[in-house]
Amino acid sequence: MIKAKTSFTKNDFAQNMSVSRETLEKLSQYSELVRQRQEQVNLVGPNTLGDIWCRHMLDSAQLFNLINDKNARIIDLGSGAGFPGLVLSIMGSSSVFLVESNKKKCRFLSEVVRATNCSAVVHNGRIEAYNDARDFDYIIARALAPLDRLLKLSFSLDRGQARCLFLKGRNYEQELIQAKKKWNMDVQIHKSLSFTLSSSAEKEFRGVVLEINNLRLKDG
After folding, report:
1. Which residues, 6+ apart, have CB-to-CB distance to 175 below 8 Å?
2. Residue 124 and residue 79: Cα distance in Å, rounded?
3. What pTM, to 2 d.p., does this model score?
4. CA distance 21 to 159
5. How many Å apart are CA 161 and CA 177, to the nearest integer?
6. Mode of pairing for the β-strands spanning 163-168 and 183-191
7. Based on the number of CB atoms within 10 Å of its own CB, is 216 exposed (0-12), middle (13-18) or buried (19 or more)?
8. In the chain, what are the domain boundaries?
9. In this structure, CATH architecture of domain 10-217
10. Of 27, 178, 195, 199, which has the fewest CB atoms closer than 10 Å, so is most exposed?
């Protein structure tokens, strides 16, 4: 179990995720680009930059073990700064599609893809307008929208065929209650690896990963 600490380093990340030296170097390049471009593009919450290896890298990387298939086709909805999709691509997922409507963020994503030589594909456009005919194995999202909205977007892409992995925070239980009014689904709740006691205000917070499959609208 990862111990809570105020300064979770890249070496802590490497130890807990068992990544190669080459992968760690590419993730380091990525984190440095986030720092360099933050003021221009507003990629992440400014107060989270000091804990980027836990709050963003580890939080994203934990999905790699849940997917456990480097060839799985993955679509990251509202990818933003690339968390979690870019992290998965750098770690070895061979088929990751990043959908983001903000042009500046898409330019940043493309910059990271070039710098790290990963295989992620960047798509600049709204999720609602995405009409690629690929069949995806996983739909992932982080800090994008309430669960009910995520399920609606996911269902519009593949009619409930893919498995969904959504990183959620303190309101996940309420979001599940609301979503279940409209949707039937099978849900597994995984405690987040990135839980950290970074401040007393967060002591009661437990982040989770919601793993959802067999998604379908309720009758009526």
Report:
1. 146, 147, 148, 168
2. 10
3. 0.91
4. 40
5. 22
6. unpaired
7. exposed
8. 10-217
9. 3-Layer(aba) Sandwich (3.40)
10. 199
pLDDT of 131:
76
pLDDT given at position 129: 85
Please provide the DSSP assignment of 136-158 as one string.
PSEEEEESSS-HHHHHHHHHHHH
Quick check: 192 and 206 in contact, CB under 8 A?
yes
89-to-113, 119, 155, 157 alpha-carbon distances in Å: 9, 6, 24, 21
Give the pLDDT score at 160: 85
What is the strand order of the sheet 138-142 is part of?
121-124, 95-100, 73-77, 138-142, 163-168, 208-217, 183-191
Query: What is the 8-class DSSP label of residue 6?
Result: S
SS3 at position 131? coil
Mean pLDDT, the chain cut into blocks of 10 residues (220 residues total):
60 93 98 96 91 93 95 97 98 97 98 98 92 85 96 92 94 96 97 62 67 91
Terminal alpha carbon distance of the chain: 44
